[in-house]
Amino acid sequence: MSRTRHAWVLPVSVLLALLLALLPLPPGVQPLRPYWLALVLAYWVIEEPERVGLGFVFLVGLVADISFGGLLGEQALRLVVMAFILQRFRARLRFFPLSQQALAIGGLLLNDRVVASAIHFFIGQPLLPWAYWWAPLLGMALWPPLFLLLDALRLGRRA
């Protein structure tokens, strides 16, 4: 009963993450934008692996690629790499305190930047500016409140 009553949280959270990524920011703040889609999908891969697997993450990544107008498949690849690592270590990560989870998510977001830089390097695009490497720290700081908010919505508790 609870699962069907709160089934709206998954699609709404993914849609909101896509919209937050499309939100225009001033050029000075743009490099600090957290990877909202990765954070939201990380939560769902950890908490609802039977609903959010590699296929779902890949499809959401393709939607993001089309929405952002970037290289088709780049975000899909980046998100699938992140989801694969999360699935591999889900059993351990799930029982970490939020502070340790945040460190692990920060490492995954840093890995995402490495994968994005490698993709840009191999296709001959300019590499990401150094300011973009600060965004994983912001994502790491946002993990605990985002986790608690999504958990409260998913389980039907007050946030």
Low-confidence stretches: none
| N- to C-terminal distance | 20 Å
- Rounded to the nearest angstrom, the radius of gyration is 15 Å
Strand content: under 5%
Number of strands: 0
Global geometry: globular
Judged by helices, strands and strand pairing, the structural class is: mainly alpha
Total count of helical runs of at least 4 residues:
7
Domain count: 1
Helix content: over 70%
**What's the helix-strand series?**
HHHHHHH
Mean pLDDT: 92
Largest sheet: none
Helix/strand layout:
Elements: H1 2-5, H2 9-22, H3 36-47, H4 54-68, H5 74-93, H6 98-123, H7 135-155
Helix pairs in contact: 2-3, 3-5, 3-7, 4-5, 5-6, 6-7
Membrane topology: Multi-pass membrane protein
Transmembrane segments: 55-81, 102-124, 130-150
Protein name: Rod shape-determining protein MreD
What does this protein look like?
The chain is mainly α and 159 residues long. It has one domain (2-155). 70% of the residues lie in helices and 0% in strands. The protein is built from seven helices and no strands. α3 packs across α5. The two termini are 20 Å apart. The relative contact order is 0.15. Pfam families: MreD (PF04093).
